Amino acid sequence: MGQSNTIRILDGNTFVVCEDTGDIEATPSEPTGLFSLDTRFLSTWVLTVNGERLNSLSFDDLQYFESRFFLVPGMATHYVDAKLSIIRERTVGGSFREQLTILNHDEKPVDLEVRMDAASDFADLFQVKDEILNKKGEIYTEVESDRLRLGYRRGNFRRETVISSSMSARYDSKGFAYTVHLEPNEQWDASIDVQTHAVGPGGRDLRFGLRTHGTERLALQHDLEKWIADAPKVNSEHGRVASTYRRSLIDLAALRFSPLSLGGATLPAAGLPWFMTMFGRDSILTCLQTLPFTPQLSKTTLRVLASLQGSRFDDFRDEDPGRILHEMRYGETAAFEEQPHSPYYGSVDATPLFIVLLDEYERWSGDVALVKELEQESRAALRWIDNYADLVGNGYIWYERRNTDTGLENQCWKDSWDSISYSDGTLPPFPRATCEVQGYAYDAKVRAARLAREFWGDPEFADQLEREAADLKERFNRDWWVEEGEYFALALDPDGRQCDILSSNIGHLLWSGIVEPERAEKLAAHLVGPRLFSGWGVRTLAEGETRYNPIGYHNGTIWPFDNSFIAWGLRRYGFAEEAATIANGILDAATYFDGRLPEAFGGYPRELTKFPVEYPTACSPQAWSTGTPLLLLRTMLGLEPHEGHLAVEPRLPVGMGRIEVLDIPGRWGRVDAFARGRLDLDKLAD
């Protein structure tokens, strides 16, 4: 079963991926099933009536946390004579509930044997991703009179799935069954509860405090309504903008994840199905994208990342003092240190970006208390940049994994194995330094200088940081500039040789402000030129480079999040037209994905394809793709905090029409912003 014909519902870290009938038949390598806390709690969930599988008439995507399936027995040719219809309505909210309804449309009574096969392989999500299911513990099944208990134990690591029903059922080791008698036009209902339990040391249930069945659907509905009501309202003459914004807002609600230590506060998980957990880089960048709309996510994210900041040297986890985590997992392989994500620190961009988010959040919110609360963590992050990240000793941030078995080779956002190369396609040795991370470090120092001067009472430290930032900017513009191509190299190798390929990373340099103004125009021309810009968006790698591949994960695909920061960078340097061009392409692409931008899509030229080409294994929804339309709105409207007020300087794409964003929250209270795009004269002439 491919991902394209799967149905997905989710609530933060808990999600279900199934067939269009509602059935689950997982294999070790497919992310289908009921998952929570990085563990698959149901791998089989198959409904039959009188021994016959069911077929789908239709499927209702009710909310991100609930779905409804309309089914009949038999094959498609039998539909016209169907005397029974079956409705499966399910909700996921911490755990899982399925409401089963059977309707008899016949003129005579029927007797039915209704069965649900149920099983769990308790696969760790990493085992599914790597297509290796090697369970070292014991899977057990306990049949009780009123429930079925599926379990897995390995030492003090225990996971259980407990299944019960509102109607009397017969439970056995492979599922449960009902005997149902229905008179003509009668209906039968059963409510099935599936509780998931994650038992830690001492028998403590790690899921304590999560919603329980019976209340979760109402709680989720109220929570979603409040989430939408609290966010700014977007109206537009061009319907795609308002509909894409609403889709993004709902997906962002779905991706909110409450870490075990927080007691209900949420931050954005990275993406379904592989990354439904806390990621340093992804969560920070999503918060930066969504600050004008959902600022509460930023405060939680900053606090959680600060609380888990590196405090020691640990080669297995690539941990250093002051380093911000990359990824946190709760499954079996992390618990037994078969992989290092408990947490894992192998990214070099999350640490400077932590400071960038703290400063940007204060500029919007005026939350001085948080800036003071996180002073020591911010100083530790700055020390990491200077003392531990410079592996070569030349003032740049480098990376080389110390965990050579299970650590990440590439610790920048383009973290696939072949994403960093020379122009001839060969891969450079380690350590490596990518260009955008130097920009983040520059931005972090400039922003930290403001925090030190205004809130930490340390003007000397502020002066020092500004000197260091100015020195970094000067050296960077000398060492990374590719004279022949007139752009910045993607990376340097340890000998200072340039990975002299043209990539989308140059747009992040504009966002960070590290580019000398006289060079910005060349970068802007590249970013909307034919080698990088497909018409739908900016490619990760330019057409014509040796490793260019329009469906290569980081070597030619288009990443919506990447484009949103590129557009923001272009606006920073005054290239509003170019920013609007990129925003227009991405928002056009969004309409072909029903307003839900995927993680990535193909980099084929727009004139070749009537619609953007899907990338086969892209996560969807994914947090920083979900945040993309929100940052593009900010960029198009030119929304920037300025001296305690919100400045608005709109520049919309041609033909966009009027956009209004109402009740934008911030230190100014709530304000409105309005903009109108210029008319499309070509269309008027037609």
TrEMBL record:
Domain Mannosylglycerate hydrolase MGH1-like glycoside hydrolase as annotated: residue spans: 320-591
Supply the Pfam families for this chain.
GDE_N_bis (PF14742), MGH1-like_GH (PF22422)
Taxonomically, the superkingdom here is Bacteria
All residue ranges annotated as the Putative glycogen debranching enzyme N-terminal domain in the record: 10-192
Name of protein = Glycogen debranching enzyme
